[in-house]
Records
---
Amino acid sequence: MNTAVPDRAKFHHMKDGTLEDWTIIGAEVQAFSKTLYQRIIDHLLLLEGDCGGFPVDRLTHCLQTATLAHKDGKDEEYVVCALLHDIGDTLGPANHADIAAVLLQPYVSEENYWMVKRPVLVRLPARKTERCTQRNEQKANKRTHPKTGPPRRSGP
């Protein structure tokens, strides 16, 4: 069993750091950065089973969003943003979009960063379209069934 402790900087205050200290820190940061993708995947998997009252859990929602983006012909960066847009839900439910945006910002375009940071603004046109479609369907059902209105569902 290897019990060797990796080299560590020796200073107690950052102002006292030497070139040797910063070389050690730099090497550790590089090694740690190489496993970022796995930490992101692990954190994304935390969304599994967390439905928050929605019909599907947050992981499924993220996978669905990324799949729709891919099927719509969006580029890889956009699809990754779609996949990770809710990754901050477990840490900051009130500001999860900010968490996802900060995570992605160094790696994505300004346009995609903006999209992740402001998800409500991105969704509004789709919701409006959806409401209009539902209203039109309701009107069509009433015209089809003038006496009874829309067909009634049987069962639960």
Note: The longest helix spans residues 119-144.
---
Amino acid sequence: MNIRLLTLSALTLLLMSGSSFAQCGMSMYEGLDLTETQKTQMQDLHEDHRTRMQAAHEVEMAATKSKMAEFLTAEQMKALAERMENRKLKMQKGNKSMHNKKHSGKYKMRNKNSTENTKL
């Protein structure tokens, strides 16, 4: 049970960061001189990965909820669902906040080919 919960938590974190990764993850490939075709292929690959992870998360979540329903009361399940929803909203808000800080212009590149950032 603990391993499933840990796996579920890890999948949740991966999914929550998925959209951010799709938007910002391409910066990892700057300097590799990818062609437009390669960039498109990388974006498609990341989107496919995100979709597969989301599907795996949904399967695990359903299995976990089913097992919990075997020993938790209806009231406990309801309270747990509310807590999970609140956590999800907090994480989404946190991810947006982190994304905004990351792209707020506090850092600039020394030169186009440099990988070192300098703080303004």
Note: The first strand starts at residue 107 and ends at 109.
---
Amino acid sequence: MPYTNQFSFKKSVFKLGFVLMATTALAALPLTFDLDGGTFVGKSVAAIGNGGGNGNGNGNGGNGGGNGGGNGNAGGGNGAGNGAAGSGAAGASAGGSSGGSSAGGASSSGGSAGVGSSGNGNGKGNANANSGLSVASGDSEDGASGNKGNNHGSIASALGALNAAHASATARENAAPNSRVGLISAYETAHEATQTALSDVENAENAATEAEADLAAAAAAVDDAIAALDAAQTSSGVAAAETDLASAQADLDAATAASAEADAAAAAAPDDADAAQAATDAAAALSDAEADVATASAALDAATAEVSTAETDLAAAEADLAAAEASVSDSEAAVADAEAAAAAAAEAEADALSAAANKSVTDEVTTAVNDLLGIN
């Protein structure tokens, strides 16, 4: 083959190879061909990442011959990963955490742009650029995994020396009193003392409640006894019985006098039958009058006994009321003492925890220590 023809053939092969390479490169790039305008138009490629952690973005560059950009979307987190690839250079990635922010990357020559979404957590994005494309990736679920890890670290940091609460129960029991673990054991003992004191307060309050119930019952019993006494004094007829007895006694006095007079008349006229009969009749009337007095006296005794019983019941009810009042007073004093003891125990518990700590003791710290010790 002539030299010129060989050169022409090689040139054609070279052109064909170049076209194939260019076609392959264009296929890999984020481009589309605009049929109307007859030009290539960059298309947007958005990389998807799952946000998590503390918004620390780690970008891994890739080698590519194209120009492109990628955007990481942080799912469920605040922040997103951004990656951009330089022309023929490695792509860089960046992650950031900023509440409610979004991230986007643009290519230097393909016009591709991505838009990052925002969320409510901390995002971590990784961008890898290959052939001009940037990919953001994350590996957490709604930012929970990263936050959990960092929250644990935050609590551990807040605990400081109180991390000694991780020691086993055996270690705490055998620890030297002034050692950190020993101080934790002292706090645990103080906490138990507080719980016992609080239980004593509850028991004292229950006793006071029962005493108040007994007082109310005693007061009601006094009221009932007073009503019963009034009823006895009214319904028993003591006054009527006293009146009946007085009347019977008057009749007896009269019968006694009449009988004495009749006896005297009969004695003066022993042969007088009428006088003798009058003496006999007067004696019978006297006997009846004595019986009436006995009956009236018995009725008065019965009425008086009913009243007396009611008075006795009232006195007993009043005594029970006084005892109940004293019990309430004692129970209230017991509650006050138990509350004071519980307050002192709680203060001692707080002092024990402060003595074991080397940092400020917050409610969160106290809860964390109690969780480690398995106490409430």
Note: The helical segments are 3-28, 144-159, 169-174, 180-235, 238-268, 273-356, 363-373.
